[in-house]
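Retro notes, structure queue

What went well: the backlog is down to a handful. What didn't: a couple of records were mislabeled last round, so from now on we paste the full input next to the output in the thread. Example, using Monooxygenase from Subtercola vilae:
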Amino acid sequence: MTITDTASPTTNNSGPENRWANQARPSTAAGWIRRAAEVSTILAADAVERDNANQPPFAEVQLLKNSGLVTLLGPAGHGGGGETWDTAYRVIREVARGDGSIGQLLGYHYLWAWAARLVATEDQISAVEELYTTNNLLFGGAVNPRDSDLIIVEEGDELVFTGHKSFSTGGRVSDLTVLEGILEGTDTHIFAIVPTEQPAIVFGNDWNNLGQRLTESGSVDIRGVRVDWASAAGFVGKVFQPLVYNTLNVPTIQLVFANFYLGIAQGAIATATEYTREKTRSWPYGGDNKPSAGEEWYLLEGYGELASKLWADEALIDKAGAEISAVLHAPRETLTERRRGEIAVLIAAAKLRIAEDGLEATTKVFELTGARASSNTVGLDIFWRNLRTHTLHDPLPYKKREVGQYVLLNEIPEPSWYT
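Corresponding output:
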């Protein structure tokens, strides 16, 4: 089953054939991961063709909505899955095995759907979670810290956001967009969640990069988006209420990255091994000729080495997922700076390992499949292109330094937009 040309960008109930229409939603973490695997299989069927077409992934987002994955973290009382981040990370990974772009979209959605819990008041959290869960809405975000902040002007009881961002994942396919800016004349940063479909949000439609092509990550102009002061996340009487918990946004998204990196690498290995079993020919000039590729010692050694590295990476990523999930679902007031820093270091280690091992895997698979596998009809390059593109998000040497400072000096990293 493929999903090309099957969904409308204007409805929430049309789209790809909804194989889950008459099925109850999963009630366990294992059930949700199986549901994600079904989605991944559908996506994998025409991932290369859709990547080449480079069209906004409305159909793919509808698939996520129909499957229930969009509301995985939403409260059960509003029809959501009521699941934990530990499960969400594994779901992201599973979806990314079939399509790295859609794994990224889902991961960013989970982060921004949780943004209210990270910084908002209890009343704001309740309102946001009811809104997106009840209506099955997808989040995007225009919060690229490498660009200048959006400027926020106070006009009575309203805040007006204006500015430009060169990256904004989710773009046109999102229903809600998270904005962040600085209040003019102050050093006060403000987050707000706004409807994506409005004249004051203008997307550049200019995302045409090497990989992760279906993430709608191009530029956006914010031209006077108006938000009530009451919707400024975490503000009471126009004063922000700070917690260490507020700073979990970056470790949370960094582990989102690690999980869809792992999913992409796992997808590469799965695709390559299938090709090797079915099409790769043994080498007839080695003096120890084998009747089939499956008996070639260098192929067995190569796949063994790559799989071993990814299994080790998965164990580290799962450990990090369990630890940050525990604090994300604990009372917000209980998180200490030290615990936050320890988790950030663990996530840095997990991310740097899967980035390096994943890039090795997505490159080495060509050596293990053979020259004919370089054909564009096979599409093995999509895994390397996707991983190579997003692993440039922030420099790995800084992650290595964070781990080194912790190990050698017992120092935890200072919270920043990238740590």
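Agreed that this is the format going forward. Reviewer comment attached to the example: The chain has a mean pLDDT of 95.
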